[in-house]
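User: My collaborator sent over this chain with a note saying "see what the structure looks like." That's all I know about it. Can you take a look?
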Amino acid sequence: MARTSPLPEDWASGAHAAGRRGHDAGAAMSELARLSLLIVDDNPQMRTILGSVLLAIGVRDIAYAPNGRAGLDMVQTASFDIIFADYEMPVMNGLDFIRGVRAEPGERRFTPVIMLTGHSDLRHILAARDAGMTEFLGKPVTARDILDKLKAVIQRPRPFIEATSYFGPDRRRRHDAAYVGPKRRQADLRPTHEL
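Assistant: Without extra context I'll predict from the sequence alone. Here is the result:
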């Protein structure tokens, strides 16, 4: 799959981070105002914390859902640029929510999902990764943590992989140039042109 992100092209290139390159910081804020985010969490305090941080940095379009089922219903009727989802929720947990998003038709299935959880052990991280999450954010969260994960999905989108038992962002984060094993990525199978 060549698709990396449903965000506008200038977001994938990092154009929203204009403030760091000497441009007007107001331009970066107006870029954030273009985003539409969904927060799916059963804890009202966590929804408030996330929403407050996102509003403070300029995001204006934020929707909230108290569980995965309500969140998936919203995903099926509206378009979101990024989703924050809790791991453990009643009615539908975060893993089933992510699987539901990844099973959606069209562009919705590419929506970046940042998984939030108080369980940041390897077992939970791998389960979220294998469900198709884009980034993982352990609780308790800070404003810096939230911003770092938001920046990661915007500035460093990962290509999506479609395999027999998985659809979601490429789970491999390390790209070892010295790797000599079998090449299975579509990009590896395409001919390259030497300059």
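A starting point for your reply to your collaborator: The chain is about 35% helix and 15% strand.
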